[in-house]
Amino acid sequence: MSSDAFSILGCEPRFDIDLRHVERTYRELAKALHPDRYAQCSASERRAALERASAVNEAWRILKDPVRRAEALFALASVPVGEGKEPQPNAEFLMAMLEERETLSQARRDGDAAGVAAIAASVRKRVRSLEDRLTAGFAHGPCESRVHALVGVLGELRFCRRILSEIDEFDDFEKKGSP
Fold it and tell me: pLDDT digits over 75-122, tens only?
């Protein structure tokens, strides 16, 4: 079994994968590698099945997350990425995100759920645009010369996902009610 997530789950190394198909493959492999199926086998066979099951689980975690999927594609193209390794987003993007964060902060202080929802919609739209750029950039598979320009897009996507995470925390707090 290959060590990259795409090979493990039998899909082409692309950003725009069919997650339903990949999930079906994941579930089939997880079922086939379930420890109960190996209970009567030798310790080495059980260990090997457990290692394969672990690799399948990790591959699914990577491919279902757009940021981790992009990181895997960059790794296949030998382009180093990670928190702090991407170039700083451009000033226009940073200013837009600063404004979004300030508006989000004010809406949260005011308990303005509609305002938070509007910001969430705006950030989700930006996320879709960034994911579309990654899809186009990785359309022909990972290639170092072609994907180097996409590293900044990944940094912007990380930034947007952090804001969405903050919004989700607010939504969770609102659902539970204040103490």
Answer: 888 888 877 777 777 889 999 999 999 999 999 889 888 999 999 999
Q: What is the DSSP letter of 149?
A: G
Domains of the chain: 5-64 (1.10.287.110), 91-176 (1.20.1280)
Tokens of 122: 């705006």
Tokens 């493959």, residue located: 25
Instruction: Grade residue 139 by pLDDT with cuts at 50, 70 and 90.
Output: confident
- Low-confidence winner among 1-5, 48-52, 106-110, 134-138 (lowest mean pLDDT): 1-5
Neighbours of 94 (CB within 10 A): 13
Q: Which residue has the tokens 């279902």?
A: 64
Q: Are 130 and 157 in contact (CB under 8 A)?
A: yes
Q: Is the pLDDT of residue 173 over 80?
A: no
Distance CA 130, CA 166 (A): 19
Helix, strand, coil shares of the chain, percent, nearest 5, are 75, 0, 25
Contacts of 105 by beta carbon, 8 Å cutoff, 6+ apart:
none
Report the distance separating Cα 49 and Cα 177, nearest Å. 45
**Rounded to the nearest 5°, which phi and psi values hold at 138?**
-100, 10
This prediction's pTM = 0.83
Tokens representing 97 are 């995100």
